[in-house]
Amino acid sequence: MLIERCCKQVRKGYEQILSELKLGKEVTLFKRITAGKAPLKHILHSGDRLILNNWQGEIPSFVTAYNSEPPLKNGRFINVELNETLYVQTFRPLKRLVIFGAGDDVIPLVQLVAKLDFYILVVDWREALLTDTRFSEANEKMLIKKDDLFANLDVQDDDFVIIMTHQFQQDQLILKGLLKKQLGYIGVLGSKNRTARLLEGASVPGFVYSPIGEMIKAEGPDEIAISIVAQLIKFKNTELKKVTFYQ
Predict the structure, then answer these.
(1) Domain boundaries in the chain?
(2) Which segments of the chain have a pLDDT < 50?
(3) How many CB atoms lie within 10 A of CB 33?
(4) Nearest Cα to 188, choosing from 169, 163, 171, 205?
(5) Quick check: helix, strand or coil at residue 8?
(6) Where is the XdhC Rossmann domain (predicted)?
(7) By the 8 A CB rule, do 59 and 43 touch?
(8) What angle (nearest 5°) sits at the alpha carbon of residue 55, between those of residues 49 and 61?
(9) CA-to-CA distance for 45 and 31, rounded, in angstroms?
């Protein structure tokens, strides 16, 4: 654990981190540790660019090439190149869960997911359903057009998406639109046969989970919500374990 005084320079660095996270970008912090001195000299690595903050001297080559390397584990390590101690910490934005549909069965789902590390976006074309009273735990609510569902909605490849509008035609339009993207997880409420009909006989891709949720013989909105959350956790944690770290 690294403990440091929160001075103006440190605060500026963490404000930059927060700004990058809000843009959905992963940020890695490299801090130079010098015995008896405050660790103010650091570099932020975000995407394909470096954000320098009070760093003096040559930038380590592994930092400039960081996005082509396996990520480093959080914590101190000795960098041979600099012959000194660096502290590394990676900050990752919350995974976004996009839920198409704002019906009554979505309410317990949002309430459960809100306890996890997800940014929750509920979208629907029915304005009367998208209220703060119904979805106070959602991070964001978006009113979309029924005839142009993706006009103002930019679904990212690393989003988790759930379809549960209970309207066949709308579910079909949503699913077909999402299949044009390279998503890792799409959950569709309903039976396998219904999802097959949504795709008009085309094979269901492996990343489309239907029926959505873990097979626990769930009944009713609350139990179905639990089964969905269990599947989200399983998928998210399985994907995280695929990441290879330098020791």
Answers:
(1) 21-91, 95-238
(2) 68, 241-247
(3) 17
(4) 163
(5) helix
(6) 97-232
(7) yes
(8) 55
(9) 11
Q: Please check whether residue 40 is in contact with residue 13, taking contact to mean a CB–CB distance below 8 angstroms.
A: no
Sequence-ordered list of residues with C-beta below 8 angstroms from that of 150, at least 6 positions apart, any chain: 144, 177
Nearest-angstrom CA–CA distance, 25 and 46: 7
Q: Name the residue with tokens 């239907």.
A: 210
State pLDDT tens for residues 92-121.
888 899 999 999 999 999 999 999 989 999
| C-alpha distances in Å from residue 60, one per residue of 40, 79, 88 | 17, 9, 13
CATH topology for 95-238 is: Rossmann fold (3.40.50)
pLDDT score, position 138: 96
**CB atoms < 10 A from the CB of 107, how many?**
21
Q: Does the predicted TM-score (pTM) go above 0.70?
A: yes
Structure tokens at 51: 């954000």
